[in-house]
C-alpha cells in the first residue's frame, strides 16, 4: 500500500523561507523499518543547523528528528513494535516533519500509556540528550550530590529537562539564560542559581557562587559566545561538554590551553553515538520514561505550531523567543 504525506523539506540551505511543504509518496516498511503516522513532531535546534547548512546535507532534505504517533506497519525483523502501538523517537535520518513516514525501527520506542503524544514528541531527542549529558558525560573525578555544574541556555528545551534531572540527582546546577524571565523559569525547574548571561558576567558569577573553586562540568550548547569563559569556569580536572552551536561553532584551540587552565578535559558529544544501537536506545529511553512518568521531570511544551506554520516555529527558535519545548502538530 502506498499513501501520500505532507513533508516539510528544503531544496537549498538557507533561512526559514527555504522550508516548503511537499507531497511525497510513502510505501511499505522494508526490513528493519516501521511506518509511523505522527500525532506530534518535536522541534529541535539541530533542525536549524541542517536547514542553514551548518550541518550540510544533500538536497532535497526532509527535516525533523523527533516525533510521536501510531505504528501503521512493521517490516521484516522488527520485533519490538507492532501495528497499532503508540510510539515515539529521536532518530536519524531526518524526516519527522510530516504526516506519515517509513523509517528505521531501531530508535523507535513504545510510548508508555501515561505519556501523551505531544509530550512524547517533545521529550525524546531533548530528554535522551539530558540523560546522556548528566549520566554518561562525567568528569574523571565523578559527580556526587552537592557538586556544581554549569548549564548554558538552561531555559530551553534540553535545558529545562536538565535542570529538573540534575536536581533529582542532587547536583547544584548553575543555569545561564538570556533574560530574567528565563532565569526565573530555570530556578522554578530546579536550578540552584541562575545567571542572565546577557546582562551579567557569567564567569564572575560562577566564581562567586562556587567560592572561587569553579564547577566540575560545563554543559555548553551555545558554542562561540560562551566557549572561552566556560573553560575558565572549570575547576582543575573539570570537564567541558560541548554539545551544540546555537551562537555559532566553538573556535579551534591549541591543546596547551587545557594544561594552562588546570589539566581540564574537553569533549564534543552527539546523541546519535549514544543511541547507535537498539539496546542502548531502549535502556536510555526507559530511564527517561521513568523520570517523566514519576513526575521528577516534567516536559514543558511552551509553543505549539501547526505543521503549516513551520517557518514561524523556526523563526521563534532562532530569535531566542521560545522556552521549554516546541511541537509541530500535523
Ligand atoms: N549534541 C547533541 O547530542 C545535542 C542534542 C540535542 C540538542 N543539542 C543542542 O542543545 C541546544 C539546545 O537545543 P534545544 O533544541 O533544546 O534548543 P533551545 O535550548 O530550546 O534553544 C536554543 C537556545 O540557545 C540559546 N542561545 C544562545 N545564543 C543564541 C543565539 N545566538 N541564537 C539562538 N539561540 C541562542 C537561547 O537561549 P537563551 O536566550 O536563554 O540564551 C535559545 O533559546 C542546541 O544548541 C542544540 O543544538 C545537542
UniProtKB/TrEMBL annotation:
A UniProt-annotated Pfam family: ADH_N
What GO cellular component term, any one, is given? cytosol
Keyword NADP tagged: yes
Q: What is this protein called?
A: Quinone oxidoreductase
Keyword Oxidoreductase in record: yes
Keywords in alphabetical order: NADP, Oxidoreductase
Q: Which GO terms describe its molecular function?
A: mRNA 3'-UTR AU-rich region binding; NADPH binding; quinone reductase (NADPH) activity; zinc ion binding
Query: What sections of the protein cross the membrane?
Result: none
Q: Which stretches make up the Enoyl reductase (ER) domain? A: 14-328
Listed InterPro entries: ADH-like_C (IPR013149), ADH-like_N (IPR013154), ER (IPR020843), GroES-like_sf (IPR011032), NAD(P)-bd_dom_sf (IPR036291), QOR-like (IPR047618), Quin_OxRdtase/zeta-crystal_CS (IPR002364)
Species whose genome carries this gene: Hydrogenophaga crocea
Amino acid at each position: 500500500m502506498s499513501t501520500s504525506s505532507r513533508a516539510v523539506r528544503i531544496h537549498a540551505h538557507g533561512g526559514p523561507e527555504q522550508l516548503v511543504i511537499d507531497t511525497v509518496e510513502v510505501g511499505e516498511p522494508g526490513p528493519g523499518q516501521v511506518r509511523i503516522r505522527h500525532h506530534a513532531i518535536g522541534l529541535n535546534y539541530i533542525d536549524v543547523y541542517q536547514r542553514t547548512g551548518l550541518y550540510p546535507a544533500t538536497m532535497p532534505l526532509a527535516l525533523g528528528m523527533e516525533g510521536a504517533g501510531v505504528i501503521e506497519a512493521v517490516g521484516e525483523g522488527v520485533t519490538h513494535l507492532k501495528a497499532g502501538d503508540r510510539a515515539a523517537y529521536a532518530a536519524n535520518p531526518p524526516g519527522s516533519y510530516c504526516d506519515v513516514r517509513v523509517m528505521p525501527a531501531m530508535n523507535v520506542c513504545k510510548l508508555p500509556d501515561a505519556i501523551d503524544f505531544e509530550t512524547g514528541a517533545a521529550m525524546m531527542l531533548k530528554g535522551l540528550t539530558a540523560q546522556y549529558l548528566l549520566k554518561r558525560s562525567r568528569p574523571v573525578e565523578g559527580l556526587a550530590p552537592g557538586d556544581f555544574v554549569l548549564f548554558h541556555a538552561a531555559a530551553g528545551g534540553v535545558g529545562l529537562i536538565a535542570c529538573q534531572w540534575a536536581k533529582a540527582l542532587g547536583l547544584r546546577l548553575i543555569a545561564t539564560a538570556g533574560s530574567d524571565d528565563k532565569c526565573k523559569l530555570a530556578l522554578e525547574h530546579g536550578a540552584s542559581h541562575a545567571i542572565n548571561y546577557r546582562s551579567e558576567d557569567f564567569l564572575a558569577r560562577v566564581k562567586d557562587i562556587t567560592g572561587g573553586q569553579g564547577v566540575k562540568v560545563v554543559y555548553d550548547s551555545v558554542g562561540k559566545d560562551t566557549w572561552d569563559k566556560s573553560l575558565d569556569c572549570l575547576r582543575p580536572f573539570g570537564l567541558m561538554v560541548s554539545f551544540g552551536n546555537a551562537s555559532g561553532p566553538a573556535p579551534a584551540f591549541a591543546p596547551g590551553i587545557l594544561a594552562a587552565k588546570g589539566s581540564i578535559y574537553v569533549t564534543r558529544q552527539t546523541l546519535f553515538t549514544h543511541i547507535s544501537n537498539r539496546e542502548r536506545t531502549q535502556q536510555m529511553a526507559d530511564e527517561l520514561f521513568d523520570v517523566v512518568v514519576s513526575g521528577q521531570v516534567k516536559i514543558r511544551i511552551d509553543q505549539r505550531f501547526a505543521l503549516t506554520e513551520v517557518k514561524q516555529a523556526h523563526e521563534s527558535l532562532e530569535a531566542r523567543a521560545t522556552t521549554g519545548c516546541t511541537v509541530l502538530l500535523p
